Amino acid sequence: MNILLTIFVMGLLIFVHELGHFLVAKFFKVHIESFAIGFGPSIISFKKKETIYKLSLIPLGGYVKMYDKETNDDSDKLQHSFHNKKWWKKILIVSGGPIFNMLFALLLIIITFAVGRTYSDVSPIIDSAVYPYDEFFQKGDRILQVNNMNIRSWSDIFSSIVENDDNVFIFERKPDVKDSKIHQITSADSITISLFIENYLSFYESLTPKTSNIIGEVNPGMPAWKAGLQAGDRILMIDGVNTENWSDVREGITNSKNDSIVLTIENNSSDSNIDASLRIRDVVVYPEINHLLGQNTKIIGISQHLDLTFTEEYSIYEAIKYGLMTTASFVYFNYNSLFILLKNPTTLKNNIGGPIMVYYMTSQTSQRGFSELLLFMAAISILLMIMNLLPIPVFDGGHIIFFLYEGIFSKPIPMKTRIVLQHIGFLILVVLILFTFYSDLSKFFLRIM
């Protein structure tokens, strides 16, 4: 089932990309000889008017073959040749695929907001507070309201804050730890205070939520996954040091000076036949450096357990608004990540995945629900746009460079030069494909063995 879902996801995104080229070319009256999704043996093939439509077995690509003759006895047919279109029309046709990937991603993200987004978070319980807010908040305080807004989760606290103004908090504290500095008590367990908050970020960094040492998710192909860790496992110690909450876990991983760390894990198995002493074991994990999170930041590919899950509903206007904002954020994040990776090419292997990675990510995401699957598809669609716009010959971005040259100098790039550049581009493409497969095998095949 997961394999079929992965094939569907990849096939749909490729179809959208090729459909973009196809429709823009049709708009400019370019003759389409064939429209194909996939490679290898043909599953379905038929001809309608002048175009052959084909679906092939391996959904790892596709193409739109356009009539591209420069000269021909049939002058009417030459009017429909891609070669004879103006340079700016060629750019729009070539850009059609990436643009459709972007628009499709935007549509998917808007849908996720329209049907309701599911969020996970930790409870609004304070674990610690630092100066100056430690005078008002203590360990164990549960925030109930901020500025008359009911608080469901930790994130809600900060979405209700107003900078450079007084903010009214109502929170719950156990009676035996009440502080004399708190003057107004609204009930046996509820306390109301007013705080002037000058800087939102400073306030956010001053409070730490109550968390656990339980793993929420394990990222496929990452060191924790290779070591056999699972969601629900509890990390009791790292290199012999107790870890009581997620801050301890994070610091134990990032502050490690060795190539490997030893995690003492309490197994999450529900099998009652397993002896309690056998549920606890030591696991050796080899962290990776992830420059996307900061210079020399170590990770093992786990996320914390979040004890709250809730669904937020949005109006159509809000869905479009937040859809646009989220799409722009995705595009910025991916371009910024690409820039960082190119500055640190040694980290490319750990941050690039191919079909196997997509399979595992699709399987994992689909378990979280329909909206999460749509969001994952949107992220992949944006990645396809970005990759195709790279200025590499044989990619759409490379063709755009060719046609920009044609527009600037009023003549196309010489054919010999173009052929050489396309051969170089094809070689780069082959290297990229082999590299992604190598990356996949190094992440997943070792685990299988």
Chart the SSEs and their pairings.
Layout: H1 2-27, E1 32-48, E2 51-66, H2 75-78, H3 87-115, E3 117-121, E4 126-129, E5 142-146, E6 149-150, H4 154-159, E7 165-172, E8 184-185, E9 190-197, H5 200-206, E10 207-209, E11 215-218, H6 223-226, E12 234-238, E13 241-242, H7 246-254, E14 261-266, E15 280-285, E16 288-289, E17 298-299, E18 302-304, E19 308-312, H8 316-343, H9 348-351, H10 355-366, H11 370-388, H12 396-409, H13 415-448
Antiparallel strand pairs: 1-2, 3-19, 4-10, 5-6, 5-7, 7-9, 8-9, 11-18, 12-13, 12-14, 14-15, 16-17
Helix pairs in contact: 1-3, 1-10, 3-8, 3-11, 3-12, 8-11, 10-11
What does the model show?
By secondary structure, the chain is of the alpha+beta class. It folds into three domains: 87-122 and 314-449, no CATH class; 123-209, Roll (Pdz3 Domain); 215-305, Pdz3 Domain (Roll). The chain is built from 13 helices and 19 strands. A five-stranded antiparallel sheet has the order 6-5-7-9-8, with no helix packed on it. The chain has a four-stranded antiparallel sheet with strand order 13-12-14-15. The radius of gyration is 28 Å and the shape is elongated. The two termini are 23 Å apart. 27% of the residues are buried.
